[in-house]
Design goal:
The structure is a homodimer. In chain A, 44% of the residues lie in helices and 15% in strands. Chain A is α/β, with parallel strands linked by helices. A six-stranded parallel β-sheet of chain A has the order 2-1-3-4-5-11, with helices on both faces. The first copy, chain A, binds a DNA duplex through helix 2 and helix 4.
DNA sequence: CTGAAAGCGCTAACAG
DNA sequence: CTGTTAGCGCTTTCAG
């Protein structure tokens, strides 16, 4: 293992000078710097980030905290895309990523403790129960935190334009002649509130009266709750002509349930999802949905987190990322 | 920030004793240990892993190297599942995960250099062009490496039982009365060879003569090559009664292509995939496929890697993980 | 412009 | 059983 001392020796200078040359300090003559860089390369010198971190107190590591209820973990379709964005942006800026967990090696520890052990510079939080005390503890700590899909006065956050998403989707359905629209919605968090607000707003603008039974409570990305919600609708006297589901997977489970009851989609009933994941393109009929710009969300989260780290500013920002209507074949004009 | 010195002072002992107590060394009296543990907790002491790493030369970090050609990155359906397994197992054993990349912060560096900078203890490699010089360099280094889906004399590896997978799938089709079976296969790596071997073996055992035109070259998880391969089949004088695709996504693209040409699946032609990802269950007809135990693969890779780290043994092992036939509705008995 | 020296927090002989 | 001491590799004053 080659250290700066080896390089220093080879150059006939001190380790301090080598360190400076390697880190582009201005107070090194061009000549010395060049020599040092050359020798360092020659000797195959690789800086030891652990050692550097110890003296600078900066690890160039950002933590990612993600815990989902459905235990799909990293395979979670939404999260994996966001993560990819976080990673790309972090990499570009010279940061590595560390997953934050409780319970490392059989030792229970809080998320904050994990961060402190590793001396993580900042954290991106997503898809979690934000109310959990351990998460709050982390958000209240000195570590820069960026949340995804969470609303709070004290935290920087990145979100999709959920309001506009459902608003546009609903408008689209109405433009197809649908008036009797049901919205099967996910569990009650800020994101969901925004979506419901979008739903109501669209109805209102089009002069369609809203009533509570247009909303059916369900959950995100879980099979059974969406099947059940669909059955609730099927059990009613009068069927809606269109149904919005909390997400694309839910929409597909919904479609399968509707079909099992002898209904055709979209001929008998139109269906739309939310998220715009690949699977929506593969099923038939191709799903009408709202595409979230997940990659952008991840990148923005990463960027914001790093900015907070580097400027050491405590200011928090809320960034809304645009969404896109993807008209598919699971919806059609009402006859 | 509380250090062992603070704890030592509070306990009226030396930092060395604190360190020993904290690390469960035997040569500390039960009484002192207890006192130290209590004080440490009281003061909110959290060990600094950077510092520890510097003196022990062990980071408790394992690297994950993954680079896919299709740029789906972490969202890659197969990889994300494997990664989840790697992560779970690593966590359980007290290790964190770091993604290895070239090009950190605009600085080009080899994978090996990235590992060396971070002083990664070991690496799991998956879904990569194993022939690339930079990957070879890493595999030839002193760092413990475990590969997934790669065959080499000098490297520990985890693989699915690819041979058996296609073997059983083919047997299953034959048992349904199919004799005219085509195999659209992915790009030519060891995994693919094994699968083709399984295909041939099954035919042979059932006395069905093999001919080269039963094999159609395509690619894994890429849309166009599989559409093209399907068109090649469709262009022939005589259609097969069943087609095997390289993976589930490819199978779905295949089905869509067949349908676009007026064929019904499975009535006119049976189709099977490989991988057993969730999407196969969601499309209709539900896909007949081989389920790879991805989670297990990840866990095994992680485990093996950690074992290599901890025993410092250079021995390499090859572990084959079993697969499972999932009969779906995309295949049916030949009429 | 260059270097000596202290220190980041922890571990690991080695003495006592 | 406990403490002293010397690093691990790098950065950072502060002199020169």
């Amino acid at each position: 293992m080659v250290t700066i001392y080896d390089v220093a020796q080879a150059c006939g200078c001190s380790s301090a000078t080598v360190s400076k040359a390697l880190n582009n300090y201005p107070d090194v003559s061009a000549k010395t710097r060049e020599k040092i860089l050359k020798k360092a390369k020659e000797l195959g010198f690789v800086p030891n980030l652990q050692a550097r971190a110890l003296s600078t107190n900066k690890t160039w590591n950002i933590g990612v905290l993600f815990e989902d209820k459905s235990h799909s973990g990293l395979t979670h379709y939404f999260f994996s895309q966001v993560l990819q964005g976080v990673k790309e942006q972090a990499e570009e800026m010279g940061y590595d990523i560390t997953f934050i967990s409780k319970n490392l090696g059989g030792v229970e520890m809080s998320y904050l403790e994990h961060c402190n052990r590793r001396k993580i510079d900042g954290v991106v939080i997503a898809c979690i129960e934000f109310d959990e005390p351990m998460v709050q503890e982390l958000m209240d700590s000195d570590i820069p935190v960026v949340a995804i899909d969470y609303y709070s006065e004290h935290i920087s956050a990145i979100m999709s334009d959920n309001f506009r998403g459902v608003y546009e989707l609903t408008k689209y359905l109405i433009s197809l002649g649908h008036k009797d629209i049901n919205y099967v919605f996910g569990h009650e968090v800020y994101v969901t509130e925004e979506r419901i607000r979008g739903f109501k707003k669209a109805l209102e603008e089009e002069g369609i009266p809203f009533s509570d039974d247009m909303l059916i409570k369900s959950k995100y990305s879980e099979k059974q709750p969406n099947i059940d919600a669909t059955k609730v609708i099927l059990g009613r006297d009068k069927l809606p002509s269109a149904i919005l589901y909390p997400d694309d997977y839910s929409a597909i489970w919904g479609i399968n349930t509707l079909r099992a009851h002898g209904l055709r989609v979209p001929e008998d009933i139109s269906v739309a999802g939310f998220d715009g994941v690949e699977i929506g393109e593969l099923v038939s009929p191709r799903l009408t949905t709202i595409k979230q710009n997940t990659s952008r969300m991840g990148k923005q989260a990463s960027l914001k987190c790093i900015q907070m780290i580097e400027s050491k500013s405590d200011d928090f920002t809320r960034i809304t990322v645009g969404v896109e209507l993807i008209p598919g074949k699971s919806t059609m004009a009402k006859k």
